[in-house]
Write a structure and sequence with these properties.
Number of domains: 1
CATH architecture: Roll
Distance between the termini: 57 Å
Order of helices and strands: HEHEEEEH
CATH topology: Nuclear Transport Factor 2, Chain: A
Oligomer: single chain
Largest sheet: 5 strands, mixed
Length: about 140
């Protein structure tokens, strides 16, 4: 087996569960008390909050799917690059549904313990996503 394959598989498993909208399936990969270091405003702690995030994204993009482009692992850390794709059918960051397809680049670093993700750091190109759904972005006055 490839070195750190289990860690990589856990990360890929989370992306697959998000892509399938499988909230229950997240429990196989995410610890109950997981710390999300980049939560959305009002997000609850732990896996409950992570499920809130998944539900919110999938209400904006019901066909939201992630493709893992790169995954690297060392000891208890995994770094991943994902391309998310979906069609905006619900409000997204205040922008009404546009029925436009988007591609969102995202990067994650996760820490695992006992085979489950216990910490999650992530960043996504939200400005690019807003531009793709037709939002008008202007500098402050």
């Amino acid at each position: 087996m490839e070195v750190y394959q289990e860690q990589k598989d856990a990360y890929r498993g989370v992306i697959a569960a998000i892509s399938a909208g499988d909230l229950a399936g997240l429990a196989a990969f995410v610890a109950q008390d997981m710390v999300d270091h980049n939560p959305m405003p009002g997000q609850a702690p732990g896996i409950v909050g992570f499920k809130q995030w998944v539900s919110a994204v999938r209400s904006s993009f019901p066909d939201f799917r992630g493709s893992v482009e790169t995954v690297l692992a060392e000891e208890d850390l995994v770094a991943g690059r994902v391309t998310w794709r979906g069609t905006q059918r619900g409000s997204f960051l205040g922008v009404p549904p546009s029925d436009r397809q988007v591609e969102i680049a995202a990067f994650h670093i996760v820490r695992l313990s006992a085979g489950r993700i216990v910490e999650w750091w992530g960043t996504a190109d939200l400005l690019g996503a807003l531009e793709q759904v037709g939002a008008r972005i202007s500098p402050p006055p």
